[in-house]
Amino acid sequence: MARPLSEEKRNAILASAADAVASLGVSASTAKIAKDAGIAEGTLFVYFPTKDDLINELYLALKADMKAAVATGYPETANVKERCEHLWNRSIDWGARNPAKRKAMRQLSVSDKVTAASRKAGMAVFQDIQSMLDEGFASGILRRQPQGMLAATTDVLTDMTLEFIYREPDKLEIYRRSGFEAYWGAISNK
Q1: What DSSP letter does each residue of 34-71 carry, written as one string?
Q2: C-alpha distances in angstroms, 33 versus 26, 53, 62, 146?
Q3: Domains (ranges, CATH) in the chain?
Q4: Mean pLDDT, 10 residues at a time, the chain of 190 residues
Q5: From CA 4, how far away is CA 77, in angstroms rounded?
Q6: Quick one: which of 163, 181, 182 has its CA closest to 172?
Q7: How many other CB atoms are found less than 10 A from the CB of residue 24?
Q8: Hey, CA dihedral for 31, 10, 89, 126, is it positive or negative?
Q9: How open is the CA angle 160-164-170, to the nearest 5 degrees?
Q10: Under the phi-then-psi rule, with left for phi > 0, alpha for psi from -120 to 50, and beta for the rest, what region is 129?
Q11: What is the pTM (predicted TM-score) of this model?
């Protein structure tokens, strides 16, 4: 009978993969990922049959990790602006605490190694956010714009805000607030 797989080893592989993808992109070798996880390369393939499987599982794990961070304390009954600000603040806090995960997520978001099925599953995790955006568009508080434009605006302003925070971590509150003001100005009808 085969031994059950260790969740601890699986998590170590995913953490190592996040660091490797953040620094080297999706071309990071499985040998490096395994070594940094403290396991043999063959063991990595027990957990993830192919490198593409590992890349897709990492993508989904990072999406779930970020979702857990932004969902904490989510004010479901608040107005759209307050919910957007909550999501912004939690997203910035996650990115500030996890620069390698954030960078890995950015790398994976543009990689052709991440399958359409994984992308769909990753987006499904954030369905409640889409519902909030739809409510904002319907009420007129949010400016109607193509979904891709809204996503790009979010990504660019998030990256900019985090770059300032990485340079001056003691000013996190100032940059997070300024970033949200710029973001709200870009997406709302005011």
Answers
A1: HHHHTS-HHHHHHHSSSHHHHHHHHHHHHHHHHHHHHH
A2: 11, 14, 16, 38
A3: 56-187 (1.10.357.10)
A4: 79 97 96 96 95 98 95 93 97 97 95 96 86 93 91 94 98 98 94
A5: 43
A6: 163
A7: 13
A8: positive
A9: 145
A10: alpha
A11: 0.90
Beta pairing partners, 142: 188
pLDDT reported for residue 2:
57
What six digits make up the tokens of 95?
A: 């990115």
- What's the rounded Cα separation, in Å, for the pair 156 and 109? 13
Q: Among 77, 75, 72, which residue's Cα sits nearest to residue 85? A: 75
Within 10 Å of residue 41's Cβ, how many Cβ atoms? 14
Written as one string, the DSSP assignment of 150-164 is HHHHHHHHHHHHHHH
- Using CB atoms within 10 A of its CB, is residue 131 exposed (0-12), middle (13-18) or buried (19+)? exposed
